[in-house]
Structures are given as structure tokens and as C-alpha cells.
Design a protein that fits this description.
With about 290 residues, the chain is of the alpha/beta class. It contains nine helices and 15 strands. It is globular.
């Protein structure tokens, strides 16, 4: 089973009709969606591979609704209930790009994961958002280490340059070196910020992750898979008919990639499933597939 540890929050997605007009009204369409990078990965993966979500939500009606929805998608949901369920305002411009205003709430309050939550996991995936805040940061590190000791594989998603800047580049690289995850997922800006892949070539910090495969996404550009000791695998992205909202595309890619890898061990196949999953969310509001 694939485990995903991190945030389950409510996304308030705003599709602006045009540029925001400061000090007055701006036209928009507003959608409420399940959000949280970890919850998105678990949800998107569940139709392809058994998936379990591990996290914390508030003891409130919003938390009840989000847990029920995630369970309804076939995810094995394990949550503690503390505090207030978090929310994220996601502003989407005309090009589909996101500006996010997060209030993670209870998502940061996850304490040590019970052994039963990790039982049966062959892989644990953690978005880097989960390292930003306590006690969830220490909880995530501990859970990754426990899965590795049990013989499982692990992965970390770099999440966002804004989060990485707050956390600290050197601190994050040192954390990755200590965790030695099987995979690190990053988009091009995150990978370049960390010095892992620069101008399409392994960057100056790549050697610090000696046993980790670095998967760098580049939007419509090719995805690069840098396996230690092997030639760079570059996989083109098939054309996408419509791009209206990039929210959740990276999570859908990670879900497809991990489902494919855990099922077959074939990296090329895994990237292809990742591309297919990402393409399905680009025309829908928030982290949802068309028709969801």
C-alpha cells in the first residue's frame, strides 16, 4: 500500500475573470474543493494503487466532510482530530497559474504516527509542506525513517519555492541527505533553487543525494529523471488541449508516477502515468479531475 502523510484542508479556489483590481470589486468564480497536497496524492493514486492518507484535521464539520469525501474516493483515511481544519485560498489567473494563501490549521498538529497506521505500507510519500511546522515536521521525519527501517521505499515532494525559502535551502538539503528518500519530486524552479538540476544537467548539489532519484517536472517541457549512476532519462510531455487551473497537477503527477513505479518498477511507464494524471486536472477547478 502507498502511504501519503501531510495536509488535508479545504481549498477555496478563485478563478478571476481578469486582473485583480485593488481597492474595488473584481469578477470571479469561486469553488470549494478538497485540498492539501498529501490528500490530493492519496486521492489521485487510489484509483490506480491501494492508498492510505495519514494526517490531522479539526474536530469540526469541515473535517468531517473532507474525511468522508476522501474515503469516498477509496482512500484508507487515518486521521487524528485536533484544533481547526485548515483552508487555503487559491487565486487562479487567466493563464492557470496559482497564488496560494495557506492557513494550514490542524494539519500542523499531527503527532507521532501509531504503528498501525504504517502497517502494510510499502512506500511513504511526504510533501515538503509537512516539514514546515511542528509537531508535524518531526512526525514526518520519524515516519519516513520507520518505513525505511521496515524495508519500504520513500519519496519527498519539494512542494514550492516559497516554502523552501521559508524553511531554508541548506536546511532542506541537509534534511533530504539525512532522509535519503528513494525519490525527490520537484518542478524546474524548485530543482534549480535546490541546485539539483540546472539547465537540464545535474546541479552542484546533486551529489549530496547520492542514493536518491530526482524527478524534475517542467510544465509542458520534458520531465527529467536523474537516477544515480545512470544517463538522464528525459520524457516528453504529450500535448494538453486546455490549461485553466494548475492546482493539483504536480500531485496528480506524483500519484500516477508512484502508482506506476510500485506496480511495475518501470520508470518510463511511471512518468507516462504521471503525465496522464496531471493532464486530467488542468481544465478543472482545484485538485479535481474533470467531472469530479
Amino acid at each position: 500500500m502507498l502511504g501519503v502523510l501531510g495536509d488535508l484542508v479545504e481549498d477555496i479556489v478563485v478563478w478571476a475573470d481578469g486582473p485583480l483590481r485593488r481597492g474595488t470589486d473584481s469578477g470571479a468564480r469561486v469553488f470549494r474543493r478538497r485540498g492539501g497536497s498529501a490528500a490530493n496524492v492519496a486521492c489521485f493514486a487510489a484509483g490506480q494503487y491501494p492508498a492510505r492518507f495519514l494526517g490531522c484535521v479539526g474536530a469540526d464539520a469541515v473535517g468531517d466532510r473532507l474525511v468522508a469525501e476522501l474515503t469516498g474516493h477509496g482512500v484508507d483515511v487515518r486521521v487524528s482530530r485536533r484544533g481547526r481544519t485548515g483552508s487555503v485560498v487559491v487565486l487562479i489567473d487567466q493563464d492557470g497559474e496559482r497564488t496560494m494563501l495557506p492557513d494550514r490549521g490542524a494539519a500542523t498538529l499531527l503527532e507521532r504516527v501509531p504503528d498501525a497506521w504504517l502497517t502494510g505500507l510499502t512506500h511513504l510519500h511526504v510533501p515538503a509542506y509537512s516539514f514546515d511546522g511542528e509537531p508535524v515536521g518531526s512526525t514526518a521525519v520519524d515516519a519516513l525513517a520507520r518505513v525505511r527501517r521496515a524495508g519500504g521505499t520513500t519519496s519527498v515532494d519539494a512542494s514550492s519555492t516559497g516554502m523552501l525559502e521559508r524553511f531554508g535551502r541548506e536546511r532542506f538539503l541537509a534534511l533530504l541527505a539525512g532522509l535519503a528518500p528513494t525519490f525527490v519530486f520537484a518542478d524546474r524552479s524548485e530543482s534549480e533553487f535546490l541546485g539539483l538540476l540546472v539547465d537540464g544537467l545535474p546541479g552542484p548539489e546533486r551529489a549530496r543525494l547520492a542514493v536518491t532519484t530526482v524527478v524534475t517536472k517542467a510544465g509542458a517541457g520534458p520531465t527529467a529523471v536523474d537516477v544515480p549512476g545512470e544517463p538522464l532519462l528525459v520524457v516528453p510531455v504529450p500535448p494538453v488541449a486546455e490549461v485553466r487551473d494548475l492546482t493539483g497537477a504536480g500531485d496528480a503527477f506524483a500519484a500516477g508516477f508512484l502508482a506506476g513505479f510500485l506496480d511495475t518498477g518501470d520508470l518510463g511507464h511511471a512518468v507516462g502515468l504521471g503525465h496522464r494524471g496531471a493532464a486530467r486536472v488542468l481544465a478543472s477547478p482545484g485538485a479535481s479531475w474533470g467531472g469530479e
